[in-house]
Amino acid sequence: MKFCWTTIKVTNMEKSLRFYQEIVGLPVNRHFGMGTDMEIAFLGEGETQVELIYNKGVNEANLGKDISLGFEVASIDEMMSSVKEKGIAVHSGPFQPNPHVKFFYVTDPDGLKIQFVENM
Questions:
Q1: Which SUPFAM superfamilies match (predicted)?
Q2: pLDDT tens string 7-19
Q3: What is the pLDDT of residues 30-39, one digit of tens each?
Q4: pTM recorded for the entire structure
Q5: Which of 5, 34, 78, 115 could form a disulfide with 49 if both were Cys (CB 3.0 to 4.6 A apart)?
Q6: What's the 3-state SS for the chain?
């Protein structure tokens, strides 16, 4: 068995696509409509992806406050500078719980916590 994707219901597909492409750096793998009211996009390379689902009739995302998605980066300092330059506020951090890892959080357009982590 392998882990395929994480599904995130979003309230604005355009904003969410821009965030996951420009901030997180995930390329769009597939993007398609389901009728006139729904869009689905899969982002990422490799076997695990992020699936975004937009339903025109839904104006609220139901996200758990204790859930986050983590993405490894080469440099926390460079990533923090990059997100700030793009107008994304740092939610919390940076944290360095031990000499081997450093991380911080931002939130996506619907408030889901996104963690950027540097393994040192």
A1: Glyoxalase/Bleomycin resistance protein/Dihydroxybiphenyl dioxygenase (SSF54593)
A2: 999 999 999 999 9
A3: 999 988 899 9
A4: 0.88
A5: 5
A6: CCCCEEEEEECCHHHHHHHHHHHCCCCEEEEEEECCCEEEEEECCCCCEEEEEEECCCCCCCCCCCCEEEEECCCHHHHHHHHHHCCCCCCEEEEEEECCEEEEEEECCCCCEEEEEEEC
